[in-house]
Amino acid sequence: MLGLKGATSFYACAWCKVHKDKRWDMNHEEDFYNKPPLQRTLKELKELSKKGRENFCCEHEPLLNIELDHVILDELHLLLRVVDVLLNNLLEDVLQWDKKDDLNKKRGEKKGVHRERLQAAIRSCGVSFDIWKKTNADGKGSGTYDFTSLLGNDKKQLLRELPGKILSVVQTSTSNTVKKIWEDFRELYTFIGSGQNSDKQITDFFEKAKSWVNLFISLRDKRKGYERARITPYIHAMVFHIPKFFRTHKSVKIFTGQGVEKNNDYARNIVLHKSNKWDAASD
């Protein structure tokens, strides 16, 4: 819609020109990315799209003439993307733990117990969830794992229930920090979904969001998945742009796309329960 390159590009943020290698840096004031020279504007997007180089990833002209302060981040997609990161990190945690423990196990002794414990903990939250080893095209194991893709309501359920179970499923030396990362994001997401808030509450949210990012990357030398590069455009926007949306529009909940996503969830649920997925109408 805005003519920008994808989420993995150097300048992926829709509202500012932060480089992806700088998204982890929380040593800035709230308006740092919301004013020139780093703030994006519709006029600038159009001008940069005509340049072949040094265009801050503006590949095409925007499809619609909408000023960027009227383009609001969807809180549901923020939840989906951030919980994906947190879930991936839990899986990496238990896989590292299993790899270390399984080296010393005797032949026939059960392996992968920490992975199974994580899977059971997630299922105990009332969410259907599986973890499996991915295979290559030749059918052999790839050495990597994947897990069930969860819908929005499932991820909300996990955010409510899973933090209380984390201490029993991840490595003990960092389990308290991992639990706090989940709990603090739950608090941030609850605020994002709330109604009108005072200036002080918005400022408090900004400071808590910065602290959350710093807590997240504090594990970068201890656990896989918490590197600075894992601070995604959504996480950056949560810290530096959602406060601006609150100050301008008082709430972001009114712009949510949850209604559309719920229709998608219903449609997906129907298709997955059909016996003939390629021609559902024939059922």
What's the SSE blueprint?
Layout: H1 42-48, H2 75-102, H3 113-123, E1 131-135, E2 141-147, H4 152-161, H5 175-192, H6 199-217, H7 233-240, H8 242-249, H9 258-272
Antiparallel strand pairs: 1-2
Helix pairs in contact: 2-3, 2-4, 5-6, 6-7
What is the average of the pLDDT values? 89
Which secondary-structure class do the elements indicate? mainly alpha
List the domain count as a whole number.
Answer: 2
From the N-terminal CA to the C-terminal CA, the straight-line distance is: 37 Å
The residue fraction in helices comes out at: 40-55%
Instruction: Report the sheet-strand fraction.
Output: under 5%
- Main β-sheet, spatial strand arrangement: 1-2
The beta-strand count equals 2
* Major pleated sheet: 2 strands, antiparallel
Structure characteristics:
two-stranded antiparallel sheet; 283 residues; single chain; mainly alpha
Structure commentary:
44% of the residues lie in helices and 4% in strands. Helix 2 (75-102) packs antiparallel against helix 3, helix 5 (175-192) packs antiparallel against helix 6 (199-217) and helix 6 runs antiparallel to helix 7. It starts with 41 loop residues before the first helix and ends in an 11-residue tail after the last helix. It folds into two domains: 1-71, no CATH class; 75-255, no CATH class. A hairpin with a 5-residue loop joins strand 1 (131-135) and strand 2. With 283 residues, the protein is mainly alpha-helical.
